[in-house]
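Have a close read of this protein, sequence plus structure tokens, and explain what the tokens say about the fold. Thanks in advance:
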Amino acid sequence: MNNPFVGTGIAIVTPFKEDLSVDYNALGSIVEFNIENGVNYIVISGTTGESATITREEKKEIINVVSSVNRGRVPLVLGIGGNNTMAVIEEIKATDLSGFSGILSVSPYYSKPTQEGIYQHFKAISEACPVPVILYNVPGRTASNMTAETTLRLANDFENIVAVKEAGNSMGQYLQLLRDKPEGFGVISGDDDLVLGVVLAGGDGVISVIAQALPREFSKMIELGKAGKAKEAYAIHFKLMEIVSLIFSENNPAGIKAVFEALNLCNDTVRLPLVPATKELKSKIEQFLKTI
């Protein structure tokens, strides 16, 4: 087992035009912007990419656009997950994963399985998947926490389960994973506000929302943290604390899209049931960006 996903990964948005169609030109610009400014890998079709409202045809074209712009410069990870295990396996088998370094698969939502159910779900995915698997624990969205014990059991039992994106907002659970994980298994933060502490404790990095809008600054913070330069890293963390709080204050990805709109990289359109950021939040974001 050797986790290849180290440093700053981004959970890339799916930009939409005002008519709600995918803005592929804006998507390409965001990919190029992030690669030029130092991100280490890109995750397609995660929560922040509004995967719940993307059609299969759109997902294929998003993959084509990102791959074409990337040209093999950074690893790509594809989000394939859900609460129907058989459907997830069917999608894995039906998808050409040759251009991907791994998949990100969310712990089953809505159904609220037991820990044994979560284990069996990922066991089936591991056995069907030809590329490395990153587990994704995000109990704020799935309504159930994948415990550290379950994550570690999976890490020990399956060679192609190489990392977890942990987004439980629990420093205690991060530390348990870091203390007890097998050699080579990656602990990746999915909490932008906690990532520096996780990295300083031995974590591998982040799959971030805010980093895609401020890739140079965020990537530098992660780089300093991995080098053990806590004082310098926290100086950047303190500067970014406000914007991290702002983008999650209403919903994700409305907040990050408001940042992109202010940066003229895409507009703020999201698909229902999400709605765009309020004028009040946009104003706060614009004021913050003037300080960077």
